[in-house]
Amino acid sequence: MKTAIVTGASRGIGRAITKRLVHLGYRVYGLARSFSDTDFSDDNFFPIECDITDTSALIRAVERIKSGEDAINLLVNNAGVGFFGPHEQLKPKEIQMMIRTNLEAPLILSNLLLRDLKNSGGSIISISSAAAKKISTHGCAYAAAKAGLTHFSASLFEEVRKTGVKVTVIHPDITKSSFYDGLDFTYEDDSRAVLRDEEIADAVEYILGTADTMAVNEITLKPQINRIKRKIPADANDRRT
């Protein structure tokens, strides 16, 4: 049985990916700050409460997983946080949180697990954002953190491709998930204007199903219609996974 580590596994895209991996026969260790609202359980799903921005706690969580006899085959860097608005209105702690969650933690996890993934011929899949590939007014810092994750993934692949490790980054556009619960904008009700978190899981399954002779470096997923709506009243807060 293959083993995967998924961050932000308690809800949204991370939960959808976790459920799909279990269905595919993986043993999944899920990391999240809390699993109190998670409605998924399985004999092959092992939730571990961990704030991935706490580096010491993150290292301990990885050491706990690696202390077993399971070879690590897959790392999914999914956890994300977003704060939006004019850049001068963001709080320094909000900027710090986005960098630590969206960029620093994936870099550290890749660092901690890379030797294991080389030994198993495994994969790293990171969930970036369509915002990483375009100008993003009122989301400058978020887009910058996600663009950093995208560039890291591309560079890491070139570094480790001879070892057989696959590195892929997925760029979802607006997705129907809990990410937008605390933001001042959200997706339209029209199904053509929003992705489903299961469709991100579909992309993960596709990547894992490709031949060993082929590498999928990046995938961008967009709804057919480009449309968002503002909430009334507008109250921009954050949503962490």
The helix content is 25-40%
What is the CATH architecture descriptor?
A: 3-Layer(aba) Sandwich
CATH domain fold name: Rossmann fold
Question: Could you give the count of β-strands?
Answer: 13
Radius of gyration: 17 Å
Spell out the helices and strands N to C.
EHEEHEEHEHEEEEHEEE
Q: Please describe the biggest sheet, giving its number of strands, its sense, and whether it closes into a barrel.
A: 7 strands, parallel
Question: Would you mind describing this structure in some detail?
Answer:
- With 241 residues, the chain is of the alpha/beta class.
- It has one domain (3-240): NAD(P)-binding Rossmann-like Domain (Rossmann fold), CATH 3.40.50.
- Helix content is 36%, strand content 21%.
- The protein contains 5 helices and 13 strands.
- The protein has helices at residues 12-23, 55-66, 92-120, 140-160, 197-208; strands at 3-7, 27-32, 45-49, 74-77, 81-82, 123-127, 166-172, 175-176, 185-187, 195-196, 218-221, 228-230, 239-240.
- The strands form 4 sheets. A 7-stranded parallel β-sheet has the order 3-2-1-4-6-7-11, sandwiched between helices. Strands 5-13 form a two-stranded antiparallel ribbon.
- Strand 1, helix 1 and strand 2 form a beta-alpha-beta unit.
- Helix 1 packs across helix 5 (197-208), helix 2 (55-66) runs parallel beside helix 3 and helix 3 (92-120) packs parallel to helix 4 (140-160).
- It is globular, with a radius of gyration of 17 Å.
- The chain starts with a strand and ends with a strand.
- The relative contact order is 0.16.
